[in-house]
Amino acid sequence: MSGFATALIFLVATVIAVPMFKRLKLGAILGYLVAGLIIGPQVMDWVNDSQTILHVAELGVVLLLFVIGLELEPQKLWRMRNHIVLTGGLQLSTCAALITLILHFTLGFSFIASLIIGLSLALSSTAFAVQLMSEHKILKSPPGQQGFAILLMQDLAVIPILILVESYSVTQNVDAPQWWVSLGAVVGVLVVGRYLTNPFLRLISSYGSAEVMTSAALLIVIATALGMQAAGLSMGMGAFIAGILLANSSFRHQLETEIEPFKGLLLGLFFMAIGMNLDLSLFISEPLFIICASLCLVLLKTLLIFAILKGTKQLTTDAMRVGLMLSQGGEFAFVVMQQSTANGILPANVSAEVTLIVGISMALTAPLVILHSLWFTSRNCPAVYDSKSDTSEPQVLIAGFGRFGQLSARILAANDIPFTALDKDAKHIEFVKKFGNKVFYGDASRLDLLVTAGLGHAKILLIAVDGEDDCIKIAELARLHFPHVRIIARARNRMTVTRYAELGVELYVREMFASGLEAAELVLKELGVTAEQAKHMVDIFAEHNRTLLAKTFKQQMNIEQLIESSRQGREELQTLFTKDKQSLVKDN
């Protein structure tokens, strides 16, 4: 079968299976697994070169680890250190220890094999669990934040687990680099990431196009991954470290936006390749064992997480709900099993059994969460909603951080109101950041970057970019995709205000209007007009101008009508000034 025909089958399977499973609230990951199972050699046999596809799709895991690293900001980790170390560490160590002991003493596995399987099954699916917590609106609540801390701890544990797998490999490579080469590679990544990556990205942003920026993002990930692999370490470890080093970079949102489409496609391909490699004959021959093991895994993790959260004085309902949401096996179990088999630590049939158990546990999670919610709702149990604001997701997003945007930002910062700002001038960003501002590189007129920057969680969008067309485009995107967000927009002139009105943007600031009025008032004072009279004259003009502008909106005037309206407006304004002057003379 040609490469194009294979690609067509994958695309068709994706667009059918993933929306269907998401509609059923079973998650995209399970949709990919089932799609791969159906098109693979076990069922339809439309695609049978699963191993080659799996090797290509492993790049998706590398990109996933890079994006996870980007999201692990040192400040966020430090703020949540107690939850991560205590709650997350207790869950991971206890769950892994229990599974390891059961496998070693009950089923007779070697200690190393039991430990690797135990660590793999102790991991939950971050994408799966976060999606469930968001849908049920508990992610930002205290129990949801503790569940998120557990997931962060698991993400941090992935790299040590992969290193453990490599260290116990029984298929040692005689040409493997010496330990000091591996250590030097890690130091090299740290140095390059700390001192060279940001200047490199600034150079690209100044002289390259959007396509070059995408290429640069992929270059950083792939070059780091291959460099670490050449040094005898994991490709994922290199990408993960690079992501953490860039977590505080001004380019973080831009990098995440550029990587996201490739990560999503390749990660989907990875899960489909895993589905193609699922051994249905193993399930048919041992259905009772596989199903019981999956149920036991879900039960064990649910009860363990429930006990931990209850120990932190969470409500019973909340603790059980979060426990169910984190009860499944995670996507990294697939990665660890695949590497363990390749390194000769686990037999292929054992790896296949673990993969099946993880897949079935994923299938069980969402229905159990739904049943739990329905059960407690029917008993008039109050639903859990977000009760705690997430300071890592500011409620104000400023698009454009020139002089106009900085004024609002300085007032917000002075009052301890967090905000996120986007600007596409890399040199300007580096200068502004010296004064403690949180500004990221990126073109705010791109929908994907607005999503990555967190506009979906914001309450207010301040559009402060220079270009009129960019302002209108940002307003269009925000009104269409984020209707709940209040927009305050910079307007260049009356025509810009008219275009905003057509979009339904009601709050705007005419950039020269207020300063022009202030200047006119000063001129009048210097000409001998009293301060009170000067202010009154300016107020008359401002109110008349606003009325005229509102009339323009209502009547939807063309250019000829606008010209005629402006002429009439001048005559009306002259009449107002004449009457006002006569009134003042009479009073005197």
Features:
Rossmann fold, Na+/H+ antiporter like fold, six-stranded parallel sheet, 4% strand, mainly alpha
Oligomer: single chain
Q: Which CATH class of the largest domain applies here?
A: Mainly Alpha
Discrete helix count: 25
Number of strands: 6
Percentage beta strand: under 5%
Sheet with most strands: strand arrangement:
3-2-1-4-5-6
- The helix content, as a percent range, equals over 70%
Low-confidence stretches: 378-391
Describe the main β-sheet briefly: 6 strands, parallel
Helix vs. strand class: mainly alpha
Please give a structural write-up.
There is one protein chain. The protein has a six-stranded parallel β-sheet, with helices on both faces. Helix 22 links the parallel strand 5 and strand 6. It has 25 helices and six strands. It folds into three domains: 328 residues, Na+/H+ antiporter like fold (Up-down Bundle); 122 residues, NAD(P)-binding Rossmann-like Domain (Rossmann fold, 3-Layer(aba) Sandwich), CATH 3.40.50; 75 residues, no CATH class. It is elongated and about 100 Å long. The chain is mainly α. About 2% of the residues have low confidence.
Question: Layout of SSEs?
Answer:
Elements: H1 3-23, H2 28-39, H3 50-71, H4 74-79, H5 81-105, H6 111-122, H7 126-135, H8 142-167, H9 179-207, H10 210-230, H11 235-245, H12 252-277, H13 280-285, H14 287-311, H15 316-325, H16 331-342, H17 348-378, E1 396-399, H18 403-414, E2 419-423, H19 426-433, E3 439-441, H20 447-452, E4 460-463, H21 468-481, E5 486-491, H22 494-503, E6 507-510, H23 513-526, H24 531-555, H25 559-587
Parallel strand pairs: 1-2, 1-4, 2-3, 4-5, 5-6
